[in-house]
Amino acid sequence: MSPFEHVGTPSGDDGSPASEDGPGRGPSVPGGLPVPSGPERGPASSGARPDRTSAVGRLAATVERLRSEVQAAHAAADGRALIELAKGIMVERLRCGPAQATRQLAELAEKAAVSQLELAVDIINQAARDRVAEIAGDFLHRTRTEPAGTGPADAACATVGVRLRTAESAALAAGDAQAVADSLLQHALSPLGATAVAIWTAGSDTSLTLAGHAGFPADEAVRWRYVPPGVVTVARQALTERDTVRFASLSETGIPSIGRTHHPHGGRVALPAGTGGRIHGVLEICWQQPLPPQPPVIMRQIEALAELCAHALETAPASYGHGPTPAQRVPAVAELVDLADGLHDPALVLTPHLGPDGELTDFRIHHANGRFMDPAGRPRSTVNGALLLEAYPMAADESELFDKVQRVYATGEPFRAQRMTLTALVDQVPLAAVADISVSRHGDSVLLIWRIEDEAARLASLLQHAQRLGRIGGFEENLLTDEITWNGQLFALYGRPPTGTPVSLRDLAAHAHPDDGIAIGRFLRAVLHHQRSASAAFRLQRRDGVTRHIRVIAEPVHDADGSLLAVRGAYQDISAQHWTEVALAATRDQLAHTEQESAERNRLALQLQQAIMPPTRGPIAAPGLQIAVRYRPAETESLVGGDWYDAVVLPSRRVLLCVGDIAGHGIEAATGMVVLRNALRGLAITGAGPAQLLSWLNIVAHHLTDQVTATAVCGLYDPETRTLRWARAGHLPPVLVRGREATRLPLVGGLLLGAVAQAAYEEAELQLEADDTLLMYTDGLVERRDTAIHDSLAQLLATAQSPAATLEHRLDQLLTHSKSDTDDDTCLVGIQVV
């Protein structure tokens, strides 16, 4: 093992443990001995440290610490060997005996203000002048100047590094935080362009106190001498986030801070100042101008200055100027132990445990109070003095209890949690418990309090929440002593303060609406005289003028002899339920009235529709034609539609054939159908063709109705020539059945009726033959919600070409095989040439 690895406390001839490090010297091991800086510091100073932010990392760190303690014990023996070797060198050079060399080594170490081991290492290095001494000296030189290149920027970084090292030495020699602030600004921060610096100390209540400052006016420092908890500042943000906060320009953030009026557009950097895992305060640096990004080497040196500030705040706190100092404000560990012993809940007093590198690794259980009960059944004597992660390794697992304790120790901000799960290992079996946790920092110690939630407390909490959610208040009235007990919810129902006087059941009528007196009388007779459980609903008139609808439930309580002893029960606020029932009753009445009106409208529309077009109609007589009609109303009366048809012989002996569909349902559609059907009959008397008739009918629909739109097919059949002239207005074309083949007539252009003021329609002519059948229909025959109209028409053609004995049978067959599911009216007209 190298002599520079984990040197422990010397013992034997050198006397007491070594003194603390002086300014600018390397860190000390737990025994207090300095460890010279060098490339062979060992694993404790290397970059491969375990990740202490995770549960497994913390447990690994605990194992590593235990291993390091074993190594340190071996290193202590090596340290004693180094001291003995140095004594031998002094015996040889001074020509003296071993006892005189021992005294001489102790006197030289005391005069040089260094430890005997460090002096012994220097004596050995000077005598040896070997490769180890050269490497150590070169390492110290490179760490002072920072690794740099040959460019101007690297040279500047090296120069700044030297100045920062000078500031470190001056800060370590300073007496208080104010002297540290002056030294940092003079030696380290001014070369970087900084104009002011502030050192804040963090109180246990997360308040901030200005411990030292430089570069700010005196009145500004007085105004910012104290920042209460909860005020968001630049330093507060660094304290809360526990990380470096950097702002290129303070004016862009809008966050208040010291010196904002004098440096409104300057940059700011705030760093938490902490040692051993605990944050003692914040270092805040101010620039006059906006702050550009800084090289990493500068930021690392500024972070080192923040650690120096933490050392100053920890060892030499400044005078705060308002109230007692932190040392006066926080109790000592002994006082905290007395406080823990006075608690009725289990409590642990924890003190920080630092690793060899000076960082917080664990907490030592300094004291467990008399209420302490270990889940694993261990006595208090076993837990006292142990490390928290060793005694309770699951604290670093799911509950993250160790994280909470560590954050409280670092920031001083208390932590409270309800129903937090705690897990303990009992014979390697994890046992979980639910508890309320309280963690607070008192000086350099942490007080951990917990209260295990037992079954009775949990049920009482559930009952309390159930009463609150159900707006229920309980009571008990002793009829012998007239003592009345109410819970808090019942006082709230009555609108009375918790210190008010409860109301007796016998006085209940005086607080109720006069109209409810009879119901309350029956309730009281049932409970007090008949001695049976009863309930009643009444209107409670409170003193504040509010009326609440209440239901009271009570039952008698008998003594051992069966005599009536007391009455207990509950009040429930049913105001919301009452008004809901009132609203529902009004809604039901309104719905019944609306349904009645709707049914009457549908009945009238259905009567009008059936008066014009009855569902069944016998054959219509026409020259050279046999005409049959089928009309199927919608399946529900609430969907009375506007489908219509007409077949009439005109004075010219030609036959008018038409089918139409009014958009919409109800009485409006039925009346629109009547208007268009009668208008078409009147227009057909003029002898105009189908296209002209539809053009005129479009004018009627657009101008002479209440915005009615419709589709229609209109045809004129000449029995002498067996010729059919027809036109369509947005309607499906007719189907021609000739022999065993059914085809759709070709589409002709034409908008639906009523869409525009003027519209022109195309006209087609069809030459019919004997036994030909023409089918005119509305969309209710073919439309399906899940099928395209093209597929529905193909199915119609397949059904239409099936053989049928008569025209009536063909129409019935089409209606029977129709798969329409739109609940729409269906109108079907069949024309057969004879």
Automatic annotation (TrEMBL):
<protein>
    <submittedName>
        <fullName>Phosphoserine phosphatase RsbU</fullName>
        <ecNumber>3.1.3.3</ecNumber>
    </submittedName>
</protein>
<dbReference type="InterPro" id="IPR036457">
    <property type="entry name" value="PPM-type-like_dom_sf"/>
</dbReference>
<dbReference type="InterPro" id="IPR052016">
    <property type="entry name" value="Bact_Sigma-Reg"/>
</dbReference>
<keyword id="KW-0805">Transcription regulation</keyword>
<dbReference type="Pfam" id="PF08447">
    <property type="entry name" value="PAS_3"/>
</dbReference>
<feature type="region of interest" description="Disordered">
    <location>
        <begin position="1"/>
        <end position="54"/>
    </location>
</feature>
<dbReference type="InterPro" id="IPR005561">
    <property type="entry name" value="ANTAR"/>
</dbReference>
<dbReference type="InterPro" id="IPR001932">
    <property type="entry name" value="PPM-type_phosphatase-like_dom"/>
</dbReference>
<dbReference type="InterPro" id="IPR035965">
    <property type="entry name" value="PAS-like_dom_sf"/>
</dbReference>
<dbReference type="InterPro" id="IPR036388">
    <property type="entry name" value="WH-like_DNA-bd_sf"/>
</dbReference>
<dbReference type="InterPro" id="IPR029016">
    <property type="entry name" value="GAF-like_dom_sf"/>
</dbReference>
<feature type="domain" description="PAC">
    <location>
        <begin position="534"/>
        <end position="586"/>
    </location>
</feature>
<feature type="compositionally biased region" description="Low complexity">
    <location>
        <begin position="26"/>
        <end position="39"/>
    </location>
</feature>
<dbReference type="InterPro" id="IPR000014">
    <property type="entry name" value="PAS"/>
</dbReference>
<keyword id="KW-0378">Hydrolase</keyword>
<dbReference type="GO" id="GO:0016787">
    <property type="term" value="F:hydrolase activity"/>
</dbReference>
<dbReference type="Pfam" id="PF03861">
    <property type="entry name" value="ANTAR"/>
</dbReference>
<dbReference type="Pfam" id="PF13185">
    <property type="entry name" value="GAF_2"/>
</dbReference>
<dbReference type="InterPro" id="IPR003018">
    <property type="entry name" value="GAF"/>
</dbReference>
<feature type="domain" description="ANTAR">
    <location>
        <begin position="63"/>
        <end position="124"/>
    </location>
</feature>
<dbReference type="InterPro" id="IPR000700">
    <property type="entry name" value="PAS-assoc_C"/>
</dbReference>
<dbReference type="Pfam" id="PF07228">
    <property type="entry name" value="SpoIIE"/>
</dbReference>
<keyword id="KW-0804">Transcription</keyword>
<dbReference type="InterPro" id="IPR013655">
    <property type="entry name" value="PAS_fold_3"/>
</dbReference>
